[in-house]
Structures are given as C-alpha cells and as structure tokens.
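Following the same procedure, sequence and fold were stored together, as reproduced here:

>
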Amino acid sequence: MTLSNNHDKAKVAEKTLAGKITTVSGEELAGVKITVKELNQSFYSDLNGQFSFSLKNDKEYSLIIEGIGFEAKSVKSSEIRLFEDISLKDL
C-alpha cells in the first residue's frame, strides 16, 4: 500500500513591473540601475530606457532607481503602473 501526500504548495502570483526611465525632458536613459531593496537584486534599463522584471505579488517592495548624473529616486512597487515612464532629475 502506498500513501501519498497531495498537498501542493500554493503558488504565489507574480507581478510584472515594466516601463521606461527618462530625463524630466523625456530623453530615454540607458543603463539605469533599479534595485529591489528587500531582495538586494538589481535590474538595468536597456538602450531605449526600458525595463521589465517580475516580483512576487504578495509583497510590497522598495525600489531604488539610480543613474549616473541623476538624483536617485525611491518608489514602492505598488506605485509603478505597467509601461509607465519614470523620470529622473539632473544632479
């Protein structure tokens, strides 16, 4: 006789964060670092300033957005709308 345990772990849905990093005047910024503070994990914007990554949807995350020559910006993951532009100010 074989006994089995059919308890599957609940799968946590993921939330995709995607958008574009720009200057306040709308110029696309490549190579901007986006750090998820709680995970100590970073992502970078591409040559067109675009970024996309997924996070577990069950938590709120703090994102630090940094580009050389620009003021760092801190935002919460819930504040980012899909495909939204995020602008950085010059230093």
Summary: Residues 1-8 have pLDDT under 50 and may be disordered.
